[in-house]
Design brief:
Bound molecules: L-homoserine
Helix content: 25-40%
Structural class: alpha+beta
Distance between the termini: 10 Å
Radius of gyration: 19 Å
CATH class of the largest domain: Alpha Beta
Strand content: 25-35%
Number of strands: 11
Shape: globular
CATH topology of the largest domain: Ribosomal Protein S5, domain 2
CATH architecture of the largest domain: 2-Layer Sandwich
């Protein structure tokens, strides 16, 4: 095998109640990365397409390149890696773009190396990519991107990831208003000390959400999918968020909150038709705020990053 091409899905992190620990992967959006073996050892980025922004081709300055450089140092293959990256995930959107870039590159490189690394080992390299991208090695995007589905990252050291079952017929609506929010800034507004009463309410919601997923109890999920801790502190960075959320909930969404560190917004709905209806209402609400957006209705991606060829 001289070349491997991987689809790495977009992800929604936090899922309202699991800051830095919960995330789910999407079918409808993702990055595509190809890695080719080269005779010269080392890592080279040939091209980055799918975005109008000029991104660095120096591998040390790019998350995909940086994680492959670290992998090469550790595995010392007798060949090099040449990367071509197609960004399907908008940059700075809160849809796990940096996670998809590093996970996709790692899964492709691992295929060329004939898969010496386990998924947990790949995850530890992908976490390095998150640290480079945002200053914090949070696992709530890279884990669902790599494993698929809805994941709970219970611990990073040692790595412990739990797959949470997604109730039948759940569709996600994702709305990406056309502005960028840097994860570092979105994290900077969060204080280190939080009130105990809010911690208790958020813990109850997290427990209720997980219990609802295991028992397919949609009303319980709906009552629980409420972020009392992070969303109120970030909302001021997110023009259009409250009107879009109100539109989602009044149209019958199970829940709605910020996707990752924003500015994208996600909602869960039962059934594709309901999700489409909610998407239309959310888009209208955003347009009324004088903003433009992209939007998707997506099933939950249960496979995670996978080889296309
Ligand atoms: N859990 C992270 C945050 C996700 O909300 O900052 C960032 O992609």
């Amino acid at each position: 095998m001289d070349q491997a091409t991987v689809f790495a899905p977009a992800t929604c992190a936090n899922v309202a109640v699991g800051f830095d620990i919960l995330g789910f992967a999407l079918n409808a959006v993702g990055d595509t990365l190809s890695v080719r073996k080269t005779k010269e050892p080392g890592v080279r980025i040939k091209e980055i397409t799918g975005t109008s922004e000029i991104l660095p081709l120096d591998p040390a300055l790019n998350v995909s390149g940086a994680v492959l450089l670290r992998l090469s140092e550790d595995v010392t293959p007798d060949f090099g890696f040449e990367l071509s990256i197609h960004k399907g995930i908008p940059l700075g959107s809160g849809m796990g773009g940096s996670a998809a870039s590093s996970v996709g590159a790692l899964v492709a490189a691992n295929a060329l190396l004939e898969e010496p690394l386990s998924r947990n080992e790949l995850l530890s390299y992908a976490l390095l990519g998150e640290k480079i991208a945002s200053g914090s090695p949070h696992g709530d995007n890279v884990t669902p991107c790599l494993f698929g589905g809805l994941t709970l990252t219970r611990s990073l050291d040692p790595i412990e990831v739990i797959r949470i079952p997604v109730p039948d017929d759940i569709f996600a609506v994702i709305l990406h208003p056309h502005y960028r929010l840097d994860t570092r800034l979105s994290r900077a507004v969060l204080k280190k000390d939080l009130p105990l009463t809010e911690f208790v309410a958020q813990s109850a919601n997290l427990a209720g959400f997980i219990a609802g997923c295991f028992t397919q109890d949609i009303p319980l999920i709906s009552r629980s999918l409420k972020d009392v801790l992070i969303e109120p502190r970030r909302a001021s960075l997110l023009p259009g968020f409250f009107p879009a959320k109100e539109a989602a909930l009044s149209s019958g969404a199970i829940g709605c909150s910020i996707s990752g560190s924003g500015p994208s917004i996600f909602a869960w709905a039962k059934g594709r038709r309901k999700a489409e209806e909610i998407r239309e209402k959310m888009v209208s609400a955003i347009i009324q705020e004088g903003l433009t957006c992209d939007s998707w209705v997506s099933g939950i991606n249960l496979d995670g990053a996978h080889l296309l060829s």
